[in-house]
């Protein structure tokens, strides 16, 4: 059993993973024009989703594009970071947002990070800025679970989702 994955039951692809392939010279088609934003190559076709919760209503905005590593990461980081803010204000969004974010991470982000640094840009590159985890929204979202991970029996009485729901009570949380 040197290749267990090959003989196991069929594995569904992780949510949001797109078969985005970086453009390579001499093969493939359609991406030869390079990045939509700056014109640089190589570029990959990626899908980034934003989610917005509005109490009861919610919506997910899908953006598809052929983007280079630098420009793509800029779009991914801004969209995902915004989603961590706008994706919290809805009954169902609390459950949808984690999957939207996970889809962006496994799909667009992993495809873009496989690309080499872009070259031949015709227009200015977008500034990728800070990583998502280094931005304020991610810190805000990740702090409550960190508090729950403390020692002792603080998990008693909590159920799944409590940590997320508690973020709505941010000003009154006890630390
Ligand atoms: Zn670009």
Tell me what you see in this structure.
With 175 residues, the chain is of the alpha+beta class. The protein has one domain. The protein has 5 helices and 2 strands. A two-stranded antiparallel sheet has the order 1-2. Helix 2 runs antiparallel to helix 3 (93-113) and helix 2 (69-86) crosses helix 4 (136-148). The longest helix is centred in the middle third of the chain and has 21 residues, at 93-113. The chain starts with a helix and ends in a 9-residue tail after the last helix. Residues 16-30 and 165-171 have low confidence and may be disordered. Bound molecules: zinc ion (ZN). Zinc ion binds at residues 35, 37-38, 40, 67-68, 70-71, 118, 125. Residues 35, 37-38, 40, 67-68, 70-71, 118, 125 line the site of zinc ion.
Q: Could you write a compact summary of the structure shown?
A:
35% of the residues lie in helices and 14% in strands. With 175 residues, the chain is an alpha+beta fold.
């Amino acid at each position: 059993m040197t290749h267990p994955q090959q003989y196991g039951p069929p594995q569904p692809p992780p949510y949001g993973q797109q078969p985005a392939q970086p453009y390579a010279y001499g093969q493939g088609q359609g991406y030869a024009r390079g990045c939509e934003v700056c014109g640089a190559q190589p570029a990959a076709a990626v899908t980034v989703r934003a989610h917005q919760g509005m109490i009861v209503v919610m919506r997910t905005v899908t953006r598809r594009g052929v983007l280079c590593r630098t420009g793509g990461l800029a779009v991914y980081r801004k969209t995902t970071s915004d989603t961590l803010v706008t994706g919290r204000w809805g009954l169902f969004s609390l459950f949808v947002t984690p999957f939207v974010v996970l889809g962006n991470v496994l799909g667009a982000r992993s495809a873009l990070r496989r690309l080499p640094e872009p070259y031949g840009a015709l227009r200015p590159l977008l500034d990728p800025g800070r990583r998502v985890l280094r931005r304020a929204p991610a810190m805000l979202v990740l702090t409550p679970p960190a508090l729950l991970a403390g020692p002792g029996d603080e998990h008693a009485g909590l159920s799944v989702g409590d940590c997320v729901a508690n973020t709505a009570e941010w000003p009154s949380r006890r630390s």
